[in-house]
Every structure is written in structure tokens, then in C-alpha cells.
## 1
Amino acid sequence: MGALRGGGCVFAEEEAAVILEAAGGDGGELERLVRERVAGRPLEHLVGWAAFAGLRVVVEAGVFVPRRRTELLVREAVREAPDGAVVVDLCCGSGAIGAAIAAYGEGRIRLTTDADGDTVFEAVPAGGERGRGGAVGPARDGEAGDAGGGGADGERGGGADGGPGRGGFGAVDTDGEGEWGGFGVVDGDGEGGRGGFEVVAADVDGAAVASARRNLGAGRVFQGDLFGALPVGLRGRVDVLVVNAPYVPSAAIATMPAEARLHEAGIALDGGGDGLDVQRRIVAGAREWLSPGGRLLIETSEDQAPLTSALFEAAGLAPRVVRDESLDATVVVGHAGARAPQRECGTTAPGHQGARCSRRDGKPERTSRRAD
Ligand SMILES: C[S@@+](CC[C@H](N)C(=O)[O-])C[C@H]1O[C@@H](n2cnc3c(N)ncnc32)[C@H](O)[C@@H]1O
């Protein structure tokens, strides 16, 4: 721990515990991990995972490390998503956002209030076949300076559950053509506490896609430029489009902490002149992909929120800004008009709500999935 502290690691004690676990009792490996950490490699890239929203999320070398502040985006997304919602995590990086939304839908994580009165995600205690551990990870935040409103400062942290592994997801449609068949509602434990969501993710970067496939399942993650990566059958069917795209202004990249600047892909950070180049393209294209009444949620900075909101307005996506001071997080939420009636699940069995029932897995409708 002395080496970590001497090397400037702000949370040396917590990092030491994570590194010790990763070394698995191998002295040589422990030495290598400490050496590389002191040399400035992000802890998450060294051990191969990041704590996010009560999960351990696989993050391979070069991939953007999910930030704690992005949990606000997850929170707002699950608030907005109806049961059985088709959710797309665009610019997914490691797929942390999509993985957390899926986990929430499956009842593997939940929202709670911590000792400071803040709303946080936590892993649902291990039970039966899930076999997951409780939240153990320390919060890591406050590292180095912020990039001046960008999406990639030094802030990370959150709880961690027992492992990144995921179960299967059932049928997949990976060809990107024709009618969207869907994946079926994900419901982790078979008796589940939630309606579940159909989560799809996409990113242009191959390394990010590789990590996201490990977090979400291979058939759910597509590679390509923004909407061009998505199966065309999803057009007009996305209930919640959730996005943390790069939004650091190009000129601010040089002021970012070295961990981000040197170890995360430039394409993950650089949002162009005003930081909004990628957001601009996403907002302009969103309506074509959203279902009637669908939601678009984009993480931005407090300073950039008025600009992001103006993009939403111009695209006819009535915006509202959500701010969480304790996470220093800002999200713009827009909606494409009133929600359409939910799709039929096609069963008249007890517990279903006839034409309003959104379930597609033959289980009774649940309506109390909201976070609050
Ligand atoms: C700030 S990172 C966020 C990653 C992830 N959403 C998260 O919060 O952890 C931005 C991501 O956008 C991706 N990206 C940038 N430009 C893109 C584009 N034109 N099409 C698809 N993905 C893009 C990058 O590869 C990177 O993974």
C-alpha cells in the first residue's frame, strides 16, 4: 500500500484490496500490478473491471472506464422505461449503462439510499441461483481535476457485486436486417421482481464492442457509426435511447487527467469544438429510431446542458434537465410526444392487462417497476 500511496494513488487502501484480489496470491503478479498502477495505468484496466451501479463491469485496455456520475443516466433511464421497453445504449463503450439497465430490469441491482442520504444502486444480496455477492467496492472519486465539463474526469467508483459474468439471453438477431424479432424480455431469476427490458448496445470502437459483448452478451452489441450500427428493424421501436457520447471540447482534452488522456481512446473523449459534435448527430437522428412517446436521455455537463437542451428543442424532443449535485452529474431527458399504448403481449391469462399488457414472455404484467 505504501508504494501505491507514494505513487500518488488517492484511494490507496481501496486500490490495494482490489489489486490483491486480482493478483490471486501470486507475488510476481502483485508486484507487476503495483508497478503498473504506480506508473499511471488505470486500476480498472489493470484488473479488467470497473465498479458501476452495483455491478462489476468488464473494461478492457483502452476502453472508456465508466464514471460514477453516469449512474444518474441509468437512474433516469429506468425511471422512464416502461415494462418490456426496448432500450438502446448508443456509444456504449464497455456497455456499462446497458448492463446496469438490464440488471435493474432483472432485479439484480436496486436503488437505495446511502448513509449520506444519496440515492445509489446496490447489488441485490445473493440469493439462490443468482449467487452474487453484496456491494463491496469503495467509491473512487475526486481524482485529479475535471476536464472542464467533459464526460471524462477522474471520478469513478461505486459498489461491486460478485462478478461480471452474465447468463444467456435467448434468441438474437444479429444480421441487422429485416423485422426486429427482439430478444424476449430478460428476467434474471425466473420469478423476478421486474418486468425486464430488451437492451441493445452499439459503439464504433472494436475494443469497446468486445468489452460490451462480455457485459451484455455478444448478440446484443453492434459495431458501427451511431445509428448505422443498429438493426434496421429497431427503427421506430426504441422506447429509451440512452447515451453517454464523448462531450469534452477538443481543446479541453489536454487538461484532462493523464489516466484518461493516455489510456482511454481519443474517440471516447473528444466531442469536437464545443464538445457537442456527436450529441448533435444523435439528437438529429433520434426521432427516426424512437417509438411514439419514446425517450432520449443524454449525459452532458452542467455548463453544456443549455446547448444540449437546445438541440433537443430543435429536434422536437421536449427537454428537461436533471441534475444530481452529489454525483456532479447532468442528464437531459427528452420525449417524442405522448407515449403510444403499450404493445400487446398476446395472452389473456390472469395477471395480464389485455391490450395494455407489454409483457412478451407470457408472465403476468407488473406495473410497479419505477425507481421511485
Ligand atoms: C464517453 S465514452 C462513454 C462510454 C459509455 N457510454 C460509458 O458511459 O461508459 C463515449 C463512447 O462513444 C463511442 N463513440 C464515439 N463516436 C462514436 C460514433 N460515431 N459512433 C458510435 N460510437 C461512438 C466511443 O467509442 C466511446 O466508447
## 2
Amino acid sequence: MMKFYADSMLGKLSRFLRFFGFDTLYRTQITVEEMLQVSLAENRIVLSQSKQVIHQSNKQKIQAVTMPTTTIVDQLVELKNQLNLDYALPPFQMRCSMCNNELEERTKNEVIDKIPKGTAKYYDVFWECEVCGKVFWLGSHWEDIKKIIKEVESR
Ligand SMILES: [Zn+2]
């Protein structure tokens, strides 16, 4: 499976890629040079909106894709076209949107103390990140994601 390093400004895209199960790092605290070093060592594809970063990547023989500066749909379409990405719907191996760790599937009983009461009433399937403790479920946010995937697939 392809692995990515998303440049700063691509936080939303990195959350989406993690959601689809792609191992994706997001550049926040480190320099471009460090990002390229890690990408080279770990065989990560660099995603950036900066021509300079793409140029630097190419010079170091790191695969890099220029991301549109417009919308998340445009960015996902561009990745689909360039790399043949498949945005599969759950169930699949999701990753934590916060820390990129692989999520574990949980039953309601296992996470009952960690979720809002209303949520427990309406959902049965949950995922938990063992690194940061965040619990995920296919809530109202999920409808927005489905809409975006549909838009991507129609292009
Ligand atoms: Zn996490």
C-alpha cells in the first residue's frame, strides 16, 4: 500500500487519506529537508502544493505529486488520476486522523465509558486508537465524507 508525506497546508487531505487506511504523515514541526529525508528512507510519496518542494523531491528521486490548492475533492481526484488510488468505504483498516496509528475495532461495551451517551444509543460499531485514545464511529461526519467520495467518483 502506498505511503504518503503530506506537506503543511494539507491537513484535511492527510485526515482523509488516513481515514481510507493510507499511512500518511503530515508535516507540521519539521523542515522540508527533514520531510524529504524521511520520505526517501520510508518510500513515501510527497504531496505538496509548492512547486519548489516538488522540484526538490524530483531532484532527490522521491516520487511527488502536486496538489491543487482548491478543494479536497480536487485533491482526491488528482491523486486518483495520478496514482490510481481506490477510496474504499468501511469496513477496512482505518488510521487515526490525529496520529496515523492503525485503529482497532471495538464493540459498544468496550468503549461505553469513552463516548457520549447519545452516541452510544445510535451506533454499534466503533474504532479506537491505542496511541491517543480517540474513539471513532460513523457519525454525522460520515455523511459528509460519503458525499465527497461520491463527488470524487463521479469525476
Ligand atoms: Zn490516535
